[in-house]
Amino acid sequence: MKTMPFQIIRNDITKMKVDAIVNAACPTLLGGGGVDGAIHQAAGPELLAECRTLHGCQTGEAKITKGYLLPCKWVIHTVEPVWHGGSHGERELLASCYRKSLALAVEYRLESIAFPLISSGAYGYPKEEALEMAVDTIRAFLKDHNLDVYLVIFQKSDYQLSKGLVEDISAFLKEAWKGKGDPHAREEEHLDSVAGELESLYIEDPYLADSIPPYPYEESRHLKKPGIQGRIKRVEWQIKQLYHSRDPFTNFCVDSKREEQFFSELEESFSHMVLRKIDEKGMTDPECYKKANLDRKPFSKIRSHEDYQPSRATALALGIALELPLSELQELLGKAGDTLSHARKGDLIVEYFVKKGIYDIYQINQVLFDFEEPLI
Ligand code: ADP
User: Fold this and answer.
1) What per-residue string of b and e applies to 258-269 under the rule 16 or more CB within 10 Å gives b?
2) Residue 312 belongs to what H/E stretch?
3) Closest Cα partner for 174 from 349, 364, 367?
4) Closest CA to 103 of 71, 79, 138, 131
């Protein structure tokens, strides 16, 4: 299920099944190269015929036509600025391309729209700035509108983040993985460490093992996961049971902090923790789900179902929106039956931002996309 109002994806925009795609057009609206050419080619000659009736369009403005042979219903044509060094109103004009296109989507009551990275091709706009402008303008719009917005990246080379940021994150990943081999080896290592913990608990109190019930597969899809991820989950679940069923008179010796964490995880559900944090931060529900880049629908499940089990991405997004420190983010994820792991590049990228106190989903997702990791 799609739950994120804003998504960056890799695709050819002419293949997008959305209400409208946006064309980065030239002032005549009579077709050109790049994305404009691709859209006209896929839509067929009737699109050009309708464009002729529009008598052109000014830079920074937008006009709408039907989609003809395209899988989308509408095409919004916006005329992008040519870069003349930045002092000729280019930034305002580019922002206006996004705003006017989005305004047309609202006027036509559309539910989804896909943009190419306007101006990042032949017109010479600096690529890093073109991306920043796209994300900032869309983000500002989504604050007060409900619409699914896709930013469609065709060529990865047009997608450019700040070099300094990418280098800083690469260095952070390198440091975290220093001497730790490939990701699979790191997951094996994690499994070894939890399996070792389980074994030591059995050694301390062998009778406890008898009290562990069978895995409640039907309640937790995480326990059913195949491969190493599932094995880790099952061992972690057993450890949880051991802590839960321990006999206080045997003076079963456990790390008290870890024990506390397990008990608090058992006591408070995911939904409860999210709602408690929203109250503590003095946020409203819409403030929280907008900041998390979440649709209202999955969020309303948190309000209505005490035992709601979110996806990993939803749990992470809410943790970021609530500006949780790393330990609490880990706790929240634990309640979703998951964990932040140094074996995953995406998790480390999230950790990088949390450690820096940058709780900006849009920025985090821009980086996750760049590193080819799933968005949150
Ligand atoms: P400009 O906007 O500078 O005139 P282009 O039209 O060539 O240049 O490209 C604008 C952006 O659209 C670029 O990032 C380019 O990679 C992208 N693009 C080109 N073809 C497609 C396509 N079929 N789908 C999505 N994006 C495309």
Assistant:
1) eeebbeebeeeb
2) helix 312-321
3) 349
4) 138
Q: Which atom of ligand 1 is nearest to the CA of 152?
A: 25
Q: How many angstroms separate the alpha carbon of residue 38 from the centre of ligand 1?
A: 9
What residues does each domain of the chain span? 6-160, 185-267, 270-370
Q: Name residues contacting ligand 1 (CB within 6 A).
A: 12-14, 24, 34-36, 38, 80, 116-123, 152, 154-155, 158
Whose CA is closest to atom 20 on ligand 1?
35
Distance 336 CA to ligand 1 centre (A): 39
Q: φ, ψ for residue 67 (rounded to 5)?
A: -100, -10
Q: Within 13 Å of residue 18, how many CA atoms lie on the same side as its CB?
A: 28
Active site residue 168: no
State pLDDT tens for residues 249-270.
Answer: 443 444 455 555 555 555 688 9
Q: Does domain 6-160 have CATH number 3.40.220.10?
A: yes
Tokens representing residue 244 in the block = 């839960």
Do residues 119 and 130 lie in contact, with contact meaning Cβ atoms separated by under 8 Å?
A: yes
Tens-place pLDDT, residues 197-241: 777 767 766 666 666 777 877 766 677 777 777 787 787 777 777
| Tens of pLDDT, residues 106-131 | 999 999 999 999 998 777 899 999 99
pTM score, two decimals? 0.81
Strand partners, 10: 153
